[in-house]
Design a protein that fits this description.
This protein is mainly alpha-helical and 155 residues long. The strands form two sheets. It has a two-stranded parallel ribbon. Strands 3-4 form a two-stranded antiparallel ribbon. A hairpin with a 5-residue loop joins strand 3 (128-129) and strand 4 (135-136). It has seven helices and four strands. The longest helix is centred in the middle third of the chain and has 22 residues, at 51-72.
Length: 155
């Protein structure tokens, strides 16, 4: 473990892995996350016990700066689809997504199908497709924001 230059503070391996996992290497997300981890440490070694507090503070800050804008003009149906995708750890097939809406009774009017919502979200680059053609929200921090901040009516 190496300490941050000039600070004498170092991060545990688990914290370092989580930083990369949640930021995806995005400079702004990584910088804010490291800032909150550094700000919340009590010793010279940043361990996983402060991870959740730092992550939530980072999600709040990135949400205020970026994610709110991304979500501000979503339709209710797009928000429903995005939220369901965010709640899945893996990519999701169109069939599984449609079945989820049926099972959980998350109604989308016929004129605006799940497929149309996906097409709109793809165009906005809020989601992407994996090599199998399944749908995914790649940015884990955005997923965390969607799960904790994006609300929509169930019907």
């Amino acid at each position: 473990r190496e300490s941050l230059a000039g600070t004498g503070v170092s991060f545990s391996q688990e914290v370092m892995q989580n930083i990369l996992k949640y930021s995806g290497g995005h400079p702004f997300e990584m910088q804010l996350l490291c800032y909150h981890l550094f700000s919340n440490h009590l010793s010279r070694y940043v361990e996983i016990d402060i991870w959740e507090k730092a992550l939530q503070a980072t999600v709040r800050d990135v949400g205020n700066a970026i994610f709110e804008k991304w979500c501000s003009d979503l339709s209710v149906d797009e928000a429903k689809v995005l939220r369901v995708l965010a709640e899945n750890d893996n990519s999701v097939t169109l069939e599984k997504l449609t079945a989820t809406f049926e099972v959980e009774n998350l109604m989308i009017p016929l004129k605006y199908s799940v497929e149309e919502a996906l097409k709109s979200l793809l165009q906005r680059k809020l989601i992407s497709r994996d090599i199998y053609g399944n749908y995914v929200v790649k940015d884990r921090m955005f997923c965390t924001y969607l799960i904790t901040h994006l609300n929509y009516p169930l019907i």
